[in-house]
Design goal:
Helix content is 5%, strand content 66%. With 358 residues, the protein is mostly beta strands.
């Protein structure tokens, strides 16, 4: 972290920078018929507001951004589920040559919940660095490193550091075909070391995506992602005679492995109106999470989920009415089939919102 801060300071002191201020805001309304994604459906209307600001210092070879992001989710009926999120950060893009670019960043995030959910408050410190190299106008290779420290204020047992290295290759062809291949290796290290369970986990992610233009202003994209746990660990605690696993509280990505595949369709009807539809299938194996019945008895050694999802989004640029204004309408459907009855559910989410930059 000290190295990244020193590099930022060197960039600022060694270049002549020009400043520009940016502000953007969002307002969305969601109608969600299963806010907790469980067999016990609880519906609500959610209002999301966001206000983001950034100050850019730029020169011919360098762009340094200082930014702040703020958002709030307000639940109309289940008010205690409402939350507030803030992020403060620095991002620097340095052009080393015509072919190469270095990107560095550091940010600090805070999530605050309400009522009993304040137990789930957390903070995160994140740093990253990556190098982008262009072999040609159509072939680009990017490699980098990401570090996250996740601090769960009320559950120090779950606090952890995550180290991630990745390599990504992008290419495009005269047939109007695009290809992206990537691999990533992640390691999670718990801050509180315990003899049992272990305090480290490792995960490998492989990703491939192919995009194809099938008509004027019309595209199709296919992707496949494989997630494999090279070593597994999960943590839990007992409260009021009930066992709680980390994934059930904080959606721990290291708790499962499997694959995901999907297809998306995009269509631009005009320069101001676009549509996107996506179909996704996901299989997740939670090999360290046993399946319990509603009386707390173990009925299977591990939880297995098969999830089907479909979504449609319509985007409309409203700049002709009000500069830098755009509107979005979304509908998403999820069907999750699981050998754990609690996680057999359907979910429909409708949303509409406005984005504005000034």
């Amino acid at each position: 972290m000290k190295t990244i801060i020193i590099i930022f300071a060197l960039f600022i002191s060694s270049t002549v920078l020009h400043a520009q201020f940016e502000v953007s805001s969002e307002f969305y309304r969601y109608s969600d018929d299963n806010i907790y994604n469980s067999a016990f459906k609880v519906s609500d209307n959610i209002y999301n507001t966001a206000l983001n600001g950034a100050y850019n210092f730029s020169s011919n070879k360098n762009t340094l951004q200082v930014y702040n992001q703020n958002s709030m989710n307000y639940y109309q009926e289940n008010i205690g589920t409402s939350s507030f999120f803030r992020k403060y950060g620095l991002a620097d893009n340095l052009r080393l040559s015509d072919e190469s670019q270095l990107n560095l960043g550091i940010n600090y995030s805070i999530k605050n919940n309400r009522e009993v959910f304040t137990l789930l408050d957390f903070t995160q410190i994140s740093t990253y660095g990556n190098m982008r190299y262009s072999f040609s106008e159509t072939d680009v290779l990017t490699g980098g490193y990401i570090y996250n420290y996740n601090n769960f204020n009320n559950f120090s047992l779950f606090s952890n550091s995550v180290h991630k290295t990745f390599l990504r290759f992008n290419s495009s062809f005269e047939t109007e075909t695009s290809l992206m291949l990537s691999c990533a290796l992640s390691a999670k290290l718990y801050s509180a070391e315990l003899g049992n369970p272990a305090s480290q986990a490792y995960q490998l992610n492989l990703y491939a995506q192919v995009g194809q233009s099938i008509a004027e202003n019309t595209g199709l994209s296919l992707y496949f992602q494989l997630k494999s746990n090279l070593s597994q660990v999960t943590r839990s605690f007992v409260y009021d005679n009930t066992l709680f696993y980390q994934d059930e509280l904080f959606n721990d990505v290291f708790s499962n492995e499997g694959y995901e595949t999907g297809i998306s369709f995009t269509k631009l009807f005009s320069s101001t109106l676009g549509l996107k539809a996506e179909l996704v299938y996901t299989k997740r194996d939670y090999s360290m999470l046993p399946v319990l019945d509603f009386d707390g008895n173990i009925i299977a050694a591990s939880r297995i989920d098969n999830q089907f999802g479909f979504g449609v989004e319509i985007q409309k640029d409203l700049s002709s009415y009000f500069q830098s204004l755009s509107a979005h309408i979304n509908w998403n459907y999820l069907h999750n089939n699981s050998n754990d009855t609690f996680y057999k559910y359907d979910n429909q989410l409708f949303s509409a919102g406005l984005d504005y930059a000034f």
